[in-house]
Amino acid sequence: KQEVTQIPAALSVPEGENLVLNCSFTDSAIYNLQWFRQDPGKGLTSLLLIQSSQREQTSGRLNASLDKSSGRSTLYIAASQPGDSATYLCAVRKAGTALIFGKGTTLSVSS
Amino acid sequence: DTGVSQNPRHKITKRGQNVTFRCDPISEHNRLYWYRQTLGQGPEFLTYFQNEAQLEKSRLLSDRFSAERPKGSFSTLEIQRTEQGDSAMYLCASSREHYNEQFFGPGTRLTVL
Scanning A96, B8, B14, B76, which has its CA 20 to 30 A from the CA of B88? Predict the structure, then answer.
């Protein structure tokens, strides 16, 4: 059974810091991995999608990497801002339909 | 592209009542997914449609839950005889193809008293 773990569960940083969020999954036979952002009480906003054949994807200040063989992905946020404060979720997709999510990392960026 | 929309955004009901939620996916997306999220957890898959066909249901989807997508456009999720344990955020997502990026709606927060 695929399990997704996100470490740390919570992170507090001052504005301007670069930071890394970690995601690990137990079964490396995935089709893709997706990172999401969720603000309190809101739905999910897709940030980046990495196909299993890719090593990384970049969007603005965000960079996500994927090491399928070791079952790991990282989300790098450069020059963090208070507006980045949210919960970040990673999800993997295997053969089949469902995205399997981790519990998320709650990020707080102070000004 | 107006995004995925869900209605209502909030629903408070008494135990034993029936509730129905609606999801309107992005117009050209033929895949539609329902997830449930409880506090402090990631979303959990409930069911999936390709056009009007319901192709997969999770074991989380008890007999009290039913979902439809009658014309392959919007979808409804009905919960009969609600229980307090049904209190959660119900999220809808859509994608163009099966392994493409999924886009989520704002969710419907259900509170069962």
Answer: A96
